[in-house]
């Protein structure tokens, strides 16, 4: 039996009378990369926001590390959802330093996470001058500061050039062996196919498919089928 670090059980979120997340039951295996795939508006960010405590579920529950999720678990969950919260007029080091102070962590951790995301040589350069890829990596560094067991990345490759995507892919693939489970969302099929061990496909708020990725699997057909079945037009 695989060990799950996170499970959602029939998770639902309504905004007014719109059902945005509809009975989503995810199973995230420890020390793996899970790809949450779905078109724009599918409910990916909303689902991830419930896992990170930004939004409260309308119904259903979340299990983390073998118990019912509670806010203390956020100490073990790192997240980069939508744009990274960065100070443009500070350096990478300074951006991280500000957070270590807030989190009560040692300075040493700043250099450690800079090394992990390979941003050690940016020196005095201000973040405003960074490429989008560098900003994303710094956002991931921030999410890693508190040594999370689970790292949640919402569309991390959005807007990156192929080089940036390749760098990020290598970085993400390196996490499971460090004891970090990754949930990554994307609307881009090929990306999920290249990074994830397991994939969930969501459309119209419904998780239409979840399975381990098999080599040579026709994910495109699966994706189309789920979208056709569940996406409202
Ligand atoms: N705070 C909100 N209030 C009302 N509707 C929202 C809110 N956040 C998201 N939605 C709606 O929920 C749906 C799913 O959004 P989202 O989870 O952001 O999708 P995705 O991340 O898959 O693109 C969309 O129709 C979006 O307009
Ligand atoms: Mg989104």
Automatic annotation (TrEMBL):
GO MF, one example: ATP binding
Family: Belongs to the ABC transporter superfamily.
Keyword ATP-binding: yes
SUPFAM superfamilies assigned: P-loop containing nucleoside triphosphate hydrolases
Top-level taxonomic group: Bacteria
A Pfam family: ABC_tran
Keyword list, A-Z: ATP-binding, Nucleotide-binding, Transport
Stored CDD domains: ABC_BcrA_bacitracin_resist (cd03268)
Lineage: Bacteria, Bacillati, Bacillota, Clostridia, Eubacteriales
UniProt KW ATP-binding keyword: yes
Protein's recorded name: Lantibiotic protection ABC transporter, ATP-binding subunit
Domain ABC transporter, residue spans: 6-229
Record InterPro entries: AAA+_ATPase, ABC_Gallidermin_ATP-bd, ABC_transporter-like_ATP-bd, ABC_transporter-like_CS, P-loop_NTPase
């Amino acid at each position: 039996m695989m060990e799950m670090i996170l499970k959602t059980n029939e998770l639902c979120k309504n905004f007014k009378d719109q059902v945005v997340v509809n009975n989503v039951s995810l199973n995230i295996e420890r020390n793996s990369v899970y790809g949450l795939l779905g078109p724009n508006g599918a409910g990916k960010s909303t689902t991830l926001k419930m896992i990170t405590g930004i939004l409260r579920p309308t119904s259903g529950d979340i299990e983390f590390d073998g118990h019912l999720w509670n806010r203390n678990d956020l100490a073990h969950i790192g997240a980069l959802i939508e744009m990274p919260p960065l100070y443009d007029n500070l350096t990478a080091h300074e951006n991280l330093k500000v957070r270590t102070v807030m989190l009560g962590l040692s300075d040493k951790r700043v250099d450690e996470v800079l090394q992990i995301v390979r941003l050690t040589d940016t020196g005095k350069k201000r973040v405003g001058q960074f490429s989008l890829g560098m900003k994303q990596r710094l956002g991931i560094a921030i999410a890693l500061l508190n040594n999370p067991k689970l790292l949640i990345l919402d569309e991390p490759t959005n807007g990156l050039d192929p080089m940036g995507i390749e760098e990020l892919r290598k970085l993400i693939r390196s996490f499971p062996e460090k004891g970090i489970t990754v949930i990554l969302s994307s609307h881009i099929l090929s990306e999920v196919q290249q990074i994830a061990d397991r994939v969930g496909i969501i459309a119209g708020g419904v998780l239409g498919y979840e399975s381990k990725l098999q080599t040579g699997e026709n994910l495109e057909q699966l994706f189309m089928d789920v979208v056709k079945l569940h996406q409202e037009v």
